[in-house]
Amino acid sequence: MLKYWRRHQWILFCSLLFSGVLVLAQLSAVYSEQSVLKRLDGLLYDSRLKLMLSYREVKDLPVVIVDIDEKSLKQLGRWPWSRQIVAQMLEQLTAAGASVVAFDVIFSEPERNPAQQVLQSGQQRLSAETTAELQQIAPLLDADHQFASSLENKDVVLGFLFQREQLAVGQLPETYVSVDSEASQSSVSQFAGYVANTAVLQQQSAGTGFINSSPDPDGFIRQAALLIRYQDKVYPSLALEAARLYALAQQLEVETAPLQQINTIVGVTVGNTRINTDLYGRVLIPYRGPARSFPYISAVDVVHGAVDKALLKDAVVFVGTSAVGHADLRSTPVGVQYPGVEVHANVFEGLIYPELIHSHPDWAEALVFLFLVVLGVLMSLLFPALGPVSLALTGGSLLLLTLGGNLYSWQVLKLDLPLTSSLLLILGLTLLNLIYGFFGASQQKARIKSIFDQYVPPAHIDEMLNHPESVSLDGKRKEMSVLFSDIRGFTNLSEKLTATELKSLLNRYFSPITKTIFEHQGTIDKYVGDMVMAFWNAPLDVKAHAELAVKAGFSMLKITDELSKSFVLDGLPAIDIGVGINTGEMNVGDMGSEYRRAYTVLGDAVNLGSRLESLTKYYGVRFLVSQMTAQQCQNMTFRTIDKVKVKGKTEAVIIYEPVDPDLLTNPDFVAALQRHEQALVLYWQQDWNEAEQLWASLYQCYNDKLYSLYLERLTHYRTHQTGADWDGVYTHAEK
Predict the structure, then answer these.
(1) Dist CA 213 CA 339 (whole Å)
(2) Which end of the chain, N or C, is less packed with Cβ atoms under 10 Å?
(3) DSSP structural state of residue 108
(4) Is 314 left (phi over 0), alpha (psi -120 to 50) or beta?
(5) Eight-class DSSP state of 210
(6) Phi and psi (nearest 5°) for 318?
(7) What residues contact 632, with CB distance under 8 A and at least 6 apart?
């Protein structure tokens, strides 16, 4: 043993030190919510939850979400709506057979009565008869009382919000929570203020629950607080109060256990069902799946009665919003744009079926601590004696066993056990010993090299051992082709889509576009919003790079046409793009700062490519290339567009539109192309009449924007003399 220690003393010392540091880190994580281990545990928790969703037990509990969505806001106006509309929606729900309705919204301010407003503002100017009439109809226009009347004798839960600040808005509800100890000495989180519903609504509500979320330090909602303390009373959450009404329970029983100076929460009983909680009265949320795992009904459809009543029969309905901009989209393990109302629905399902809820027992940290100590010592002593293959297999096996045991505890025993520190221990010690073996092998290779240096030139040995890369990322100047493309009208298009729809559209667009650029040997420079920038002839030399770039442009246009058709079929807007390509000398290399770098191209030739893409909209074409690009594409046909000076450039350049080879099989198209080229020559020679006749006939046949532009120019030049020194160059003042 002593010989073994001497032989491997450094790796043994480092392994035991690493294990000890990890054990201390795990111990400190118990008392710190901000620790790195807690953050990593949260990420692994999310991955495990999503991995095991397909094995989650499916319950037939009828939970439905009435969604104040974009469709509802568009048809009924922005939120908040009149309480009359809310009352109508509630009446429709109860008429359809909903058993419990829970509102994930707050009605904290009274709705203005128009009759009362008129009376108050025009009291001095109104006649007695008008005043009497307004006083008579005022109750009929009191939306709050109409909503309050609809709440009467119904199992409706209103939501309210606790605040850290000392404020009191609305009327705080009565609490139906019974605690077996003094509430002021319990471990339940305490708040200083609240925003509740108006008194007239609160008094008619069968139940009220808070809608506060309980995010982890990283902002993800993995657990839900069932109880919150305000002053000397304990109040239930929206989901817990809905569960009380659903179970026909008169009150909620909270069980506590003494711990030093406070009473920690042990569990909550709803009717005949007991739910275990952590010491703060929280439970892990048993997410059913990603967003919209529960049935969703648009609120406007409920208001208009356009709903299948079978879906609402005996259902528990949660009313909330998924509309973007209403600040109720949460980050959860199953989605980062997750409607907050669906979080309450998941908690409610877990309260009705407690077997769905996983627990994090108090002894979990002690178990992990013991596991780290025992495994850390065993691995530290065993691993130095193993070879690289045995070491990798042993480490991998331990990793799989640990993961398997953790998943078994989650799925079968319904236990949430911390996993990060155990995985870090196995990975860390395995990697540490592999590195130790690697350096040992490197030292051996160095000794062999020193021997062969006597017989083989060192440069040859270095070449064989190191295999240096043949591609350099250092900056240099060379001839290249650059392509720019963006989606037409993208700003207007993005305003019509939700964030999720816009993300989906761009992902579906960028994937095939990127693929075809790669297939044509191009390099993606960057994506900026809807813009794609690519270049050819770097970092590897590419023959016929201009021709490949033009072919890639054609392919992008065809892909866009196909995507546009599929977008329309999916209910998304049609899209179109513009493509601009230039060829010339450019600076290419790995550029940037010490914080962020990128392999990119710079120079006037790059800027011209961007200007060409912008000019496609002006000329009414989809594809433009420069004269330099066209000259290198001898096997392609181009339509001459113009001789221009773009903004920021002093030299004129002729720009062209590449012609799709499929169009050249059409004799009429070829003839029109020749007539356009003839008209352009006449135009440059200032033969306005002949040029006008040709373009007018072409415009009459094809209604091409390019021809109308030239006809407008001819009209302008007839009234504004060009002069003998006119060179036919058109200067663009805008980018």
Answers:
(1) 12
(2) N
(3) -
(4) left
(5) E
(6) -110, 125
(7) 544, 546, 547, 583
In 3D space, the residue among 631, 626, 633 whose CA is nearest the CA of residue 654 turns out to be 626
- Amino acid residing at 3: K
User: Helix (H, G, I), strand (E, B), or coil: what is residue 624?
Assistant: strand
- The tokens describing 166, both together, are 């000392």
**Contacts for 641 with CB less than 8 Å, ≥ 6 apart:** 619, 621, 624, 655, 656, 657, 706
Cβ neighbors of 456 (< 8 A, separation 6 or more) are none
Q: Name the region of 648 (left: φ>0; alpha: ψ -120 to 50; beta: rest).
A: left
Q: Is the pTM of this model over 0.70?
A: no
pLDDT in tens, 531-577: 999 999 887 788 999 999 999 999 999 999 999 999 999 888 999 99
Query: How many other CB atoms are found less than 10 A from the CB of residue 564?
Result: 17
| Distances, alpha carbon 606 to alpha carbons 65, 229, 586, 639, in Å | 52, 63, 7, 22
Contact between residue 92 and residue 302 where contact means Cβ atoms under 8 Å apart = yes
* Pair of tokens at residue 450: 């020193």
Q: Look at residues 81, 138, 13, 54 and name the one whose alpha carbon lies nearest to residue 300.
A: 81
Q: Is the peptide bond before 290 cis (omega within 30 degrees of 0)?
A: no
Cβ 90 vs Cβ 151: under 8 Å: yes
CB-count burial class (<10 Å; 0-12, 13-18, 19+) for 469: exposed
Distance CA 121, CA 352 (A): 52
Half-sphere exposure of 577 (CA within 13 A, CB side): 27
At residue 462, what is the residue type?
Answer: D
Residues 6+ apart with CB under 8 A from 111: 82, 83, 143, 144
At 569-589, the pLDDT tens digits run 988 899 999 999 999 999 988
| Residue 496 structure tokens | 């019509």
pLDDT level of residue 72 (50, 70, 90 thresholds) = very high
What six digits make up the tokens of 308?
């299948």
Q: Each residue of 160-185: b (16+ CB within 10 Å) or e?
A: bbbeeeeeebbbbbebbbebebebee
Q: Do 652 and 729 touch, CB atoms closer than 8 A? A: yes
Sign of the Cα torsion 118, 123, 124, 128 reads positive
Name the least confident of 3-12, 57-66, 183-192, 206-215: 3-12
**Which of 142, 141, 143, 173 lies closest to 156, judged by CA?**
173
Burial of 78 (0-12, 13-18, 19+ CB in 10 A): exposed
| Lowest-pLDDT range of 119-123, 179-183, 611-615 | 119-123
| 614: nearest Cα among 653, 564, 580 | 580
* Closest residue by Cα to residue 304 from 65, 102, 85, 152: 85
